[in-house]
Specification:
The chain has 435 residues and is α+β, with helices and mostly antiparallel strands. It has three domains: 75 residues, no CATH class; 146 residues, 2-Layer Sandwich (Beta Polymerase, domain 2); 147 residues, no CATH class. It is built from 17 helices and eight strands. It has a five-stranded mixed sheet. A hairpin with a 4-residue loop joins β7 and β8. α5 packs across α6, α8 packs across α9 and α9 crosses α11. The chain is globular, with a radius of gyration of 23 Å.
Length: 435
């Protein structure tokens, strides 16, 4: 009965675009280390019958006798397999609280009013605001009011655009004149699956909002297909409408960003170095960093939002047994081959496949024999001196095409006038950048 329940849940999850509902729990936490902290949701555990015990726990009990304790899970960033319903309609209390960043009340009210005014006519499942209009960035003039960026996750794009076209036809360019089907097709078949309406005035605020299906959003968060939105969510954003499935997927996304950064860092590093690595991932391969963005953008984001980065990542780091927090913002990681192998093994499949391809190519060019045995192969690449280079090149290849095609698509979805205005603003920031 248990196996049937797990397989059914997994099958439904895969249909919904979530491939690793169970495997997402950071197994960097291993079974060999002594668990720390108190178990989460102990009341729910007390109500569990023996039929709810996972297969791995049954094996553990059968090996160590009937009195062997169940493996303990730590902190609110964990979720038991049986606590995830197939419809993702609920999560344990406080799960993913690290994703909710505090902002001042006046800004919160303004942002929420903007979303509510659109949500009232065209329902939104998940919404967040981001960028210099929400969080301060070093090098930006605080007296100027920048365009505020939003992303709206919706269930059915064509239906949503149909409702929004009726309520707000002036938000759209000429593509909107072709109807909701043309808009949805443009959104989903080109670029990174996002349709942007820039330079829209709502409640006196100049905004740009992107529309994406929740399926596409969660797929990118879990698998890093384009890193267009998963990379955006590596950095602090203000969530305005939350969704359990997206929150779960984003927690996987944040752990994966942390793992990539750890594999790229030395044994000892600072929290700022970690955050620079994480914040810079999605800019690898983005052509706008060469012609339209401040080249110091990553450092400016982290330096001005350090407390928000700590809010986002400190709870995750506290749950990784291979990372130890030292004094004065310094950290240390276990860089043993076994731990690095486990960390690499948990990377998104799209990234892991690309790194292995580049590693094999490098070995072939050097005339070195490729190890075929899976365990040894993973350990070999995870401890390779050039692993950081393979990671960067793979991420560059993931980001490059979607970023370029999304920008080209923006010319059609925004219109020539708005595109020119947006481009001039970007170039203005580039020319006046801080040296």
């Amino acid at each position: 009965m248990l196996n049937r329940t797990i397989s059914t849940t997994t099958a439904i999850a895969r249909q919904r675009g979530i491939r690793h509902v169970i495997a997402w729990v950071p197994k960097d936490l291993n079974t060999d280390h002594k668990p720390q902290g108190r178990a989460y949701n102990t009341q729910a555990r007390a109500r569990m019958s023996p039929n709810h015990i996972s297969t791995s726990q049954r094996r553990h009990n059968s090996t160590n006798g009937p009195t062997a304790p169940l493996r303990q899970r730590r902190g609110p960033n964990y979720i038991m397999d049986f606590e995830v319903p197939p419809d993702m309609s609920r999560l344990p209390p406080k799960f993913g609280d690290n994703q909710h960043i505090d902002i001042d009340d006046a800004t919160w009210q303004q942002l929420k009013a903007v979303v509510d005014s659109i949500h009232h006519k065209a329902p939104i499942r998940y919404a967040f605001a981001y960028g210099s209009g929400v969080f301060a960035q070093k090098g930006y003039d605080s007296k100027k009011k920048p365009m505020v960026d939003f992303v709206f996750g919706v269930s059915h794009p064509q239906h949503w655009h149909s409702l929004n076209l009726q309520a707000n036809p002036h938000h759209y360019s000429l593509v909107g004149k072709l109807g909701s089907k043309a808009v949805a097709m443009t959104q989903e078949r080109f670029g990174a699956g996002v349709y942007f309406n820039p330079f829209v005035e709502v409640n006196g605020m100049n905004i740009k909002y992107g529309v994406v299906s929740v399926d596409s959003l969660c797929n990118d968060l879990l698998n890093w297909e384009t890193m267009y939105l998963s990379g955006r969510l590596h950095k602090p954003v203000k969530i305005l409408i939350d969704d359990p499935r997206t929150r779960l997927s984003n927690q996987v996304n944040l752990f994966n960003a942390t793992r990539v950064a750890l594999l790229s860092l030395p044994k000892r590093f600072t929290s700022e170095e970690l955050f620079y690595k994480i914040a810079g991932l999605s800019y690898l391969g983005d052509f706008r960093m060469s012609i339209g963005e401040n080249p110091h953008k990553v450092q400016n984001i982290v330096n001005a939002q350090l407390s928000q980065f700590h809010r986002l990542y400190d709870p995750l780091l506290g749950n990784l047994s291979n990372v130890t927090t030292l004094r004065e913002g310094h950290l240390e990681q276990d860089d043993s081959p076994l731990v690095r192998s486990r960390t690499f093994q948990k990377l998104p499949p799209n990234l892991k496949k690309g790194v292995l391809y580049r590693y094999h190519s490098a070995l072939s060019k050097a005339g070195v024999e490729i190890v075929k045995e899976e365990g040894k192969e993973i350990q070999s690449v995870a401890t390779a001196p050039d692993l950081d280079k393979y990671l960067q090149r793979t991420i560059h290849s993931i980001v490059q095409i979607p970023a370029l095609s999304q920008s080209i698509k923006g010319i059609a979805t925004a219109g020539l006038l708005k595109t020119g205005k947006y481009g001039m603003e970007k170039l203005g920031k580039w020319w006046t950048r801080s040296k």
